[in-house]
Write a structure and sequence with these properties.
single chain; alpha/beta; 2-enoyl-CoA Hydratase, Chain A, domain 1; eight-stranded mixed sheet; four-stranded mixed sheet; 10 helices; globular
Length: 271
């Protein structure tokens, strides 16, 4: 990944660019549905660090290219991560997978999720970490972990009920179903839903409204709205990591992932 003189960061999987007050991080692996490969996660970490280093930044947009905002884990590859410095426990490997996206919670300026397409699993979790979400009418959104024999991760069980309420969150998480943009807006998951081709422009227009306001109050409003959110989310993510690591070791998880890759219904046995 390389950095330009204007603070832009480019890489094979993630791009960051800014024009003063507004920055944009773009997940740029449409051929792999912007899934959570090591390359994309490392690129995202670098792009987010570059964004936070821009003193003039007043709003950050996170978006993707192609039909997906992010499809979450790359089940053809690794679904856990290690740091290479020491052996990690299973729950630590699960948590490490989500840390790059969870870092969005620490960004000081408002973050807009410009959901250009499907946001599923960990990609759905990334959307939940944003302060505002503008989505594509054609997109599909949700956390399908239960359908894969897995416990959710990335603090989704903490963040989702805060947005849509416990009943709606229970519906989405227990059924594992995905909703379209219209339903996502109806239940409060999306603040605005438009055609996929219009998502970027609408996000930019909203970012400009935010950037035109006094930066001090905008930051303190964000802190007030999210008071305790990051800490609570990290506690939840840690608790989820234990449960997810346990579920990942089951025969049902192996069946769920195999069924997903084989494009067939899973047959769970409870083992």
């Amino acid at each position: 990944m390389s950095s330009g003189g204007d603070g832009a960061v480019t890489g094979p999987a993630v791009r960051f660019e800014h024009d003063g007050a507004i920055g944009t991080i773009t997940l740029d692996r449409p051929d792999n549905r912007n899934s959570m490969t090591a390359e994309l996660l490392d690129g995202f970490t670098a792009a987010l660090a570059a964004a936070r280093a821009v003193a003039s930044l007043r709003c950050l947009i996170i978006t993707g290219t192609g039909a997906c905002f992010s499809a979450g884990a790359d089940f053809k590859g690794a679904v856990q991560r290690g740091d290479g410095e020491r052996p990690l426990a299973p729950h630590e490997r699960s948590l490490a997978m989500y840390q790059p996206f969870l870092a969005v919670l620490d960004v000081e300026v408002p973050v807009i999720g410009a959901l250009n397409g499907h946001a599923v699993g960990g990609g759905f979790g990334l959307a939940l970490c944003c302060d505002l979400r503008i989505g594509a009418r054609e997109g599909r959104y949700g956390a399908n972990f239960a359908r894969l024999g897995l416990h959710p991760g990335m603090a989704i069980t903490h963040l989702l009920p805060r947005l849509v309420g416990v009943a709606a969150a229970a519906d989405l998480l227990l059924t594992g179903r995905l909703v379209d943009g219209v339903e996502a807006a109806r239940i409060g998951l999306l603040g605005e839903v438009v055609a996929a081709a219009e998502v970027g422009a609408r996000a930019r227009a909203t970012a400009e409204l935010i950037a035109a306001n006094a930066p001090g109050p905008v930051r303190t409003i964000k802190r007030a709205l999210g008071r305790g959110l990051a800490a609570g989310a990290r506690d939840a993510a840690l608790a989820e990591a234990f449960a997810q690591a346990e579920s990942l070791a089951t025969a049902d998880a192996a069946e769920g992932i195999a069924a997903l890759l084989g494009k067939r219904p899973p047959v769970f046995t409870g083992r």
